[in-house]
Specification:
Helices cover 49% and strands 10% of the residues. The protein is mainly alpha-helical. It folds into 3 domains: 70 residues, 2-Layer Sandwich (Dna Ligase, domain 1), CATH 3.30.1490; 80 residues, no CATH class; 137 residues, no CATH class. A two-stranded antiparallel sheet has the order 1-2. Strands 3-4 form a two-stranded antiparallel sheet. It has a two-stranded antiparallel ribbon with strand order 5-6. A hairpin with a 2-residue loop joins strand 5 and strand 6. The termini are far apart.
Amino acid sequence: MKKKKQAKKHILISIILLVAVLTALGTVALCLYQRAMRPNVTTPDRKDFSLYIPTGSDFQQVKDSLYANQLIQNPNSFEWLAEKKDYPNHVRPGHFVIKNGISNNQLVNMLRGGLQTPIKVTFNNQRTIADLAGRISHQIEADSIEIYTLLNNTDSLKAWGYTKQTIPALFLPNTYEFYWNTDAYGFVQKMKAEHDRYWNEERRAKAEAIGMTPIQVSTLASIVNKETNKTDEMARIAGVYLNRLKSGWLLQADPTLVFAVGDFSLKRVLNVHKEVESPYNTYKYPGLPQVPSASRHYRLLTPSSMQSIIIITIFAQKKIFPAIITSPRHWQSTIATRKDIRDNSTR
C-alpha cells in the first residue's frame, strides 16, 4: 500500500515537472515566435516605403537606414533574427518596398533573398549623351560618369554596332522597368534588347521600303520631333523631309542647325547661323546628319502621301505655325507673308 502511494507521488511529481518544462518551453517558443513573426515594422503614414541599399553596403549601413527612417519598433528583435538567419553575410543591394506592419521574418527574408521591386525609368528626348547619362543616373544606381564613359568607349560601341555619332539612336524614349542597382553596362544591354525588340522584321521592312536604315529613321525622327510636338503633324512633316531627300535637295532643317550652333536656347534660326561650319548644318551639306537625339520612330515609317517639298515656320504674335508648301503659288504667298512678318518685327 505504501509503495503504491509512493509510486503515485513520483508519477504526480513527474507530471508536474513535465508540465512545468513544457510550459517553460512553450513560453520560450512563444517569445521567439513573437520576436520573429509579430509585426515590427511601422512605415511613415502607414504607406509603402522604398528602401535603397547601395552596392557594397554592409549590415550596419542597412540598420542605419532602417533606424534613421524609424521603421523598426524593436531593433533588438530585428537584429537577433537577422543574426540567426545570417543576413549580415548576405546583404544584397537594390530597391526594396517595405510594407507597414510586416514582421521581422518577412523583412529579413525579403532583404536576405534580394527580393527587390523594379523601378520605372523614363527618359524623353535628351539632346546629348551627357544629358542622357545624367537623366538615367538620377533613376538607377549607375553613376552618370560611368554611363557617359561607357557610351564613349570605342570598343564597346563597335561591339554594339554603333559609333559615337550614332549611339543615341539606340535609346528609344519610353518608360522601362529596371532593377535599381543596375550598372552602366546592364543599362545599355537592356536598351539594346529593347531596341532590337522594337526594330522587328516588320518595322525594318518598312524602313527599307522608304530607303532608310533604323539609324536614319531615328535621325529623321529626332528632327521631326523638334519641329513639332503635335503627333497629327509628324507624318506630314516626315513626308516633307523624305521628299527633299529623295529629290536631292538640302534638308535645311532648323533643328540640325540649332545643334550645329550648340545653343539650345535658340528660338529662331537666323541667316548668320546658316553659315556655321558643321557636319550637322543641313543648309550646307546634303543628306541626313548623324544627329545625336532620339525620338519615337513608328509614325515616320508611314509618312503622309502629300508631295510636299518645303516646310517653313511662320512667326506671328509669338506663336509658331508649321506651313506646308505644295505649289509655286503657295510658295510665293508664303515668302510674301514671311517678309511682312520680318519687316514688322524690325520696326
